[in-house]
Every structure is written in C-alpha cells, then in structure tokens.
Design goal:
Layout: H1 2-25, E1 29-31, E2 34-38, E3 42-46, E4 55-60, E5 65-66, E6 68-81, E7 84-85, E8 96-99, E9 105-109, E10 117-127, E11 130-139, E12 143-154, E13 160-165, E14 170-173, E15 181-185, H2 188-194, E16 209-210, E17 214-223, E18 228-234, E19 239-245, E20 253-263, E21 268-279, H3 286-293
Parallel strand pairs: 15-16
Antiparallel strand pairs: 1-2, 2-3, 3-4, 4-5, 6-7, 6-12, 8-9, 9-10, 10-11, 11-21, 12-20, 13-14, 13-17, 15-19, 17-18, 18-21, 19-20
C-alpha cells in the first residue's frame, strides 16, 4: 500500500511538473536589455543587445540547426506612407521593451519629429515552434497608405523560397529567372502601392519583379538538409504583399507588407503575423496550420 501511495504521489508530481513547465517554456525571460527563450523546439534571443532586430541566434533544438541570419527573424524594417520612407528602418529607432505578465515581450517606438505615429509590437509564443508578432500603429496625423515591411533573415541552409499564389492556389517558386527581388501582391490595389515611388527612395532602392497575385499571405523557405521549413503567415486583411529574393540570393529572406491602408489621426491599427518552424514532411498540412493560426489566441476569440 505504501509503495502504491508513493507511486501515486510521484505520478502526481510528474503531472504537476509537466503542467507547469510547458507553459513556462512558452514565455520569454528578461536578461538585461534582451529577452531569451527556449521552448524545447526553438531557443535564442529577442532584441539581442537591446537592438530592434527581432529574434536572433535561433537554434532548432531537435536538429541543432541554426535558423536565423543577418538582421534576425520578425524584425520591423522599412516603414512607409504614400511615396515616403521613415529613415532606413525601425531597426535604427530608439525604443523600449518590457516583459508582460503573460511572458510576452512588448516593444514600443514613440513618435518623433518627422515620424507622426507611435509604433509597437507584441511577441508571443503560440506553440513551441510558432512565434507570433502583433504590430500596432497609433496615428497622430493621417497616415496615407501606411506600410510596415516585416522582415525575416534566415541562415543559408534555407535556399528555397516560394509563395502561395495563383489561381488555382499553388506554391510559386522564387526562381532566379524571374528576377532578384520578387513580390506577390494581394490584388491590383496592392500593386499600385508597391509602385507609388516608396521603393525608389535611396539609399538601397528596390526594383520589384511583380509575380502572381497571392492566394493567401503565406510564404515558405525550406532547408532540405536537415529537412525543415520556415512558414511565414499574415492575416488576409493585415497583409497586402509577400516578398522575397530568389532562392540563392544571400539575404535568404522573406518579408510581409503589413497594413497597406490609410490610418486616420487618432486611430490605432493592428496587424498579426506568425513564423512557424516545422518538419519538411508537414508541408502538405500548411493550409490546415494556417486555418489553426488565423483566428488568433483562444483568449482573443
């Protein structure tokens, strides 16, 4: 009887530990000016050294593969209104970050002279391999055709890129013959935004090759060895284009063009995006995964 009681107690303790440890893993931890994470699938840093470069030093635990490169994953890069760019990018703006009670990281860049809006973001874990970022803008003045260009820079093992585009929907590859920099707009109105002059502003103007219209705002980069896929997803009403260079261009990047609409003075607007790291073998489940993510966290439904 004592042995049975001891075994039962041990079992209860194991279950209690499991119930506590899994939610704890889906939280960021503050470490000076940066935030660290280890979900059991992904580990790394957010805002390394206090810089606004998204997630960096990201390692896939089961394979040991390094996933991130360059300026990190899910970083806020270019910011535009009609025909205007706000500096080089949000990477360079002074801002603040804090850990909230849910273990999410809240980032805020206040308005400044020549920048009539506050920009914010919340990073949260949806699953051990899924990280969501909600971008928020609070307009002080009217922001005509506002855009945030959200960037992911992967390590060089991710040398295949494609978007979910065309009719019927299919994976359309970013093959080199279509140009170095390729963009998949949502519709004709999105294409008009891309061509309003914002991407001609120096330094580093971009000449986008227009590809087929999106079937859904989903893009993928694959690493055939060790057999991983990086799935970048936006909500249809929040994302008006998906962009990328061709497969082997050394940025190895994916981008989402967020908002794409006029935001009135005094209005706060939000846009969600999610990066999921999954085994290559699960690519045929992407539509189901997208449907699972799209409604938002259970508390927000």
């Amino acid at each position: 009887m004592r042995a049975s009681s001891a075994g039962l107690t041990a079992g209860v303790l194991v279950l209690a530990w499991a119930a506590w440890s899994q939610p704890q893993r889906l939280r960021f931890q503050a470490a000076g000016p940066e935030f660290v994470f280890d979900t059991g699938v992904l580990s790394g840093k957010l805002r390394e050294g206090g810089r606004a470069i998204g997630l960096s030093r990201v390692v896939h635990g089961p394979t040991g593969a390094v996933l991130s490169g360059g300026m990190g994953l899910l970083s806020h890069y270019r910011v535009f209104t009609a025909g205007k760019r706000y500096g080089n990018g949000a990477w360079d703006w002074p801002g603040e970050a804090r850990l909230n009670l849910k273990g999410e990281v809240e980032v805020f860049w206040p308005a400044a002279p020549g920048r009539p809006f506050g920009l914010g973001a919340v990073y949260r874990w949806r699953q051990p391999g899924w990280i969501e970022v909600e971008t928020r803008v609070s307009a002080i003045e009217e922001l005509v055709d506002f855009e945030v260009f959200l960037a992911c820079y992967f390590s060089k093992i991710f040398n295949f890129a494609a978007a979910r585009a065309g009719t019927p929907a299919r994976w359309v590859e970013a093959s080199p013959e279509h140009g170095v920099w390729q963009i998949f707009p949502r519709d004709d109105a999105a294409q008009a935004l891309i061509h309003d002059g914002r991407w001609k502003i120096p330094p580093s103007p971009v000449n986008w090759a227009i590809r087929p219209n999106l079937a859904a705002p989903i893009a993928v980069r694959r690493a055939r060895e060790p057999g991983l896929a990086a799935l970048l997803m936006g909500a249809p009403g929040d994302c008006f284009a998906v962009a990328m260079p061709h497969h082997d261009e050394p940025h190895y990047s994916l981008y989402l063009s967020l908002f794409g609409r006029t935001i009135r003075a005094g209005e706060t607007a939000r846009a969600r995006a999610c990066l999921a790291i999954l085994p290559d073998s699960e690519l045929d489940r992407i539509e189901a995964m997208y449907g699972e993510w799209l409604p938002g966290p259970p508390a927000e439904r």
